[in-house]
C-alpha cells in the first residue's frame, strides 16, 4: 500500500503556490488538452494512426487492412479529423487520409516509449 501524505494546511508556502499558479495554463487550454488525449483512448483510432504512419490511404483500404466496415472507419476518421490528428485530400471521388503533421507521430511514439519502459 502506498504512503499517503497528509497536508493539514498549517503552513502553506504562499510564494511557491503563487509562482506555480502563474505557470498553470488557462482552464480552457487544459480542457482542450484533456479532450485531445481522450481521442487516444480508442484502440481503433490508434490502429488507424499507425496505418497512416506507413502511408496515406483511403477509407476502403484502411477498412480492408483493419478488417472493419468502411462506415466504422469513416466514423473514427471523423473524430481524428476533428481533433486535427489527420487531414484529407480529394482525388476525383476518392478521399485520401494522412497524418495532420509530425506531432501526431511524436505523441504516439512517446506514448509507446513510455509503456515499453
What is this structure's SSE topology?
Layout: H1 14-23, H2 27-39, H3 43-54, E1 57-58, H4 59-66, H5 70-82, E2 86-91, E3 94-99, H6 102-116
Antiparallel strand pairs: 1-3, 2-3
Helix pairs in contact: 4-5
Structure keywords:
117 residues; 3-stranded antiparallel β-sheet; mainly alpha; 6 helices; 12% strand
Can I get a quick summary?
It is built from six helices and three strands, in the order H-H-H-E-H-H-E-E-H.
Tell me what the structure shows.
This protein has 117 residues and is mostly helical. 61% of the residues lie in helices and 12% in strands. The protein has a three-stranded antiparallel β-sheet. It is elongated. The protein starts with 13 loop residues before the first helix and ends with a helix.
Give the helix/strand class. mainly alpha
Globally, the shape reads elongated
Biggest β-sheet: count, sense, barrel? 3 strands, antiparallel
Low-confidence stretches are none
The count of DSSP E runs of length 2 or more, i.e. the number of strands, is 3
- Rounded mean pLDDT is 92
Instruction: Return the string of H and E elements.
Output: HHHEHHEEH
What is the straight-line distance between the termini? 23 Å
The Rg value, from CA coordinates, equals 20 Å
Q: Which strand order does the major sheet show?
A: 1-3-2
Strand content: 5-15%
| Quaternary class | single chain
Work out the helix count: 6
Give the % helix: 55-70%
